[in-house]
């Protein structure tokens, strides 16, 4: 069973370490098995592309590389603060994430 990450696709996050420390951005993809997330504009790396039919000249293009999920903190959409998350059981028995600062539920 894959690990469940505290972050999900579409979350706004604060970057806690690395060259993009302090930056706020959005999660593009989460990789629960790897404990990593891909965050828009964060940890850009240069990829050397071979010439293809689409891009005959090949060359270098920049793309995001995944970073460890532990290096990001979710920004609460309600209070706009970076926060740790609480787990909350809903009336239908499902678990939801909640902001530890304002108590509002995060995501669906
Ligand atoms: Zn909050």
Structure description:
The chain has 108 residues and is mainly beta. The chain folds into two domains: 1-75, SH3 type barrels; 76-108. 0% of the residues lie in helices and 44% in strands. The protein has strands at 12-15, 24-31, 36-39, 44-49, 59-64, 67-68, 72-75, 82-83, 85-89, 95-99, 105-106. Strands 6-3-2-1-7-8 form a six-stranded antiparallel β-sheet, with no helix packed on it. A three-stranded antiparallel β-sheet has the order 9-10-11, with no helix packed on it. A two-stranded antiparallel ribbon has the order 4-5. It is elongated and about 55 Å long. The model has no long low-confidence stretch (mean pLDDT 92). The protein binds zinc ion.
List key phrases describing it.
2 domains; six-stranded antiparallel sheet; single chain; 44% strand; mainly beta; binds zinc ion; three-stranded antiparallel sheet; SH3 type barrels; 108 residues
- The whole-angstrom Rg is 17 Å
Instruction: Work out the number of β strands.
Output: 11
What is the residue-averaged pLDDT? 92
CATH topological fold name of the largest domain: SH3 type barrels
Looking across the biggest beta sheet, what order are the strands in?
A: 6-3-2-1-7-8
> Which H/E pattern describes the elements?
EEEEEEEEEEE
> What percentage of amino acids are in beta strands?
35-45%
Annotated CATH architecture of the largest domain: Roll
Question: How would you summarize what this structure contains?
Answer:
With 108 residues, the protein is an all-beta fold. The protein contains no helices and eleven strands. The two termini are 21 Å apart.
């Amino acid at each position: 069973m894959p690990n469940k990450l505290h972050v999900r696709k579409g979350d706004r996050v604060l970057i806690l370490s690395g060259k993009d420390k302090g930056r706020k951005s959005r999660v593009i993809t989460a990789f629960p098995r790897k404990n990593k997330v891909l965050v828009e504009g964060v940890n850009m790396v240069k990829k050397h592309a071979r010439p293809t039919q689409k891009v005959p000249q090949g060359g270098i293009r920049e793309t995001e590389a995944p970073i460890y999920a532990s290096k990001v903190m979710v920004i609460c959409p309600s209070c706009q603060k970076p926060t740790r998350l609480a787990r909350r059981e809903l009336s239908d028995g499902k678990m939801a994430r909640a902001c530890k600062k304002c108590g509002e539920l995060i995501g669906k």
